[in-house]
Design brief:
heterodimer, A: 115 residues, mainly beta, 7-stranded mixed β-sheet, 4-stranded antiparallel β-sheet, 11 strands, 48% strand, B: 115 residues, 6-stranded mixed β-sheet, 5-stranded antiparallel β-sheet, globular
Chain lengths: 115, 115
């Protein structure tokens, strides 16, 4: 069965360091999302891509976060420099269509701990 | 911004019991999704609802899209131990523009087994 792949699954870093997360969506899914989930809360959207273009990054802290999806397939989310408050689960999701809303499918996430 | 109120926050179940949880919003949604999340994993899509009044089942799970488009409920019949986890409702942002397709999540209902 097709799945969203993410790596690494776990990342521990010290504050002020740079970290990067990778996501490979389900094949054929044009829309890709990055979410951040703090313990005890629901996921919150950081950025949405349609193919290689960013369509919504209004909630992305752009002073330290960046995201790209250069070829419209896999994507990378970067944090530089990491801060203590960035400790969270970072989830990637993909969907066939953002307009039809055919359900977003999530990867297993990357658990980030900033020391 | 849009918010979803999900209740109850937590509940204890005994094997065999039926379970109900719901989600309400002050805004309308065109799509409601229900997810289950196990510790350390990404959310798994359980049921997607696309039409007001729609009632959809997936095995022992049944969900309904409220007529007002501002609420949804999820029922689990004859619960089993593997039903334990956190259940999230999510509404698909119907607005046009960049935020179209963004999911807004509730804070989750934590299902635990009665000691």
């Amino acid at each position: 069965e097709a799945e969203v792949a993410q790596s690494p699954r776990y990342k521990i870093t010290e504050k002020s360091q740079a970290v990067a997360f990778w996501c490979d969506p389900i094949s054929g899914h044009a829309t890709l999302y990055w979410y951040r989930q703090i313990l005890g809360q629901g996921p919150e959207l950081l950025v949405q891509f349609q193919d290689e273009s960013v369509v919504d990054d209004s909630q992305l802290p752009k002073d330290r976060f960046s995201a790209e999806r250069l070829k419209g397939v896999d994507s990378t989310l970067k944090i530089q420099p990491a801060e203590l408050g960035d400790s969270a689960m970072y989830l990637c999701a993909s969907s066939f269509s953002r307009v039809r809303g055919g359900g977003q499918f999530f990867g297993p996430g990357t658990r980030l701990t900033v020391l | 911004g849009q918010q979803l109120n999900q209740s109850p926050q937590s509940m204890f179940i005994q094997e065999g019991e039926d379970v109900s949880m719901n989600c309400t919003s002050s805004s309308i949604f065109n799509t409601w999704l229900w997810y289950k999340q196990d510790p350390g994993e990404g959310p798994v899509l359980l049921i997607a609802l696309y039409k007001a009044g729609e009632l959809t089942s997936n095995g022992r799970l049944t969900a309904q899209f409220g007529i007002t488009r501002k609420d949804s409920f999820l029922n689990i019949s004859a619960s089993i131990p593997s039903d334990v986890g956190i259940y999230f409702c999510a509404g698909l942002n119907p607005d046009y523009g960049g935020s179209q397709g963004n999911l807004i999540f509730g804070k989750g209902t934590k299902l635990s087994v009665k000691p």
